[in-house]
Amino acid sequence: MREILRTLLLDFQGATLQAGVPRRLRVKRVPGKATIPIGARRCG
Predict the structure, then answer these.
(1) 23: left (phi over 0), alpha (psi -120 to 50) or beta
(2) pTM for the model
(3) How far apart are CA 20 and CA 24, in angstroms?
(4) What pLDDT does residue 27 have?
(5) Is 1 exposed, middle or buried (0-12, 13-18, 19+ CB in 10 A)?
(6) Cα–Cα distance list, 4 to 9, 13, 14, 16, 19 (Å)
(7) CB atoms near residue 27 (< 10 Å)
(8) Over the range 7-19, which residues count as b (16 or more CB within 10 Å of their CB) and which as e?
(9) Residues 6+ apart with CB under 8 A from 27
(10) What is the pLDDT of residues 1-44, one digit of tens each?
């Protein structure tokens, strides 16, 4: 079991991740505050 988990983790660490999906959301930043979009799937 440990060997299977070790193999899975090492395979995942070596994998290349996709770049992601561009968003059309514009967020006004407020100095000194965290910018966190909320909503269905983070406003995507």
Answers:
(1) beta
(2) 0.39
(3) 13
(4) 82
(5) exposed
(6) 9, 14, 16, 20, 28
(7) 10
(8) eeeeeeeeeeeee
(9) 35, 37
(10) 999 999 999 999 988 888 777 778 788 889 999 988 776 665 55
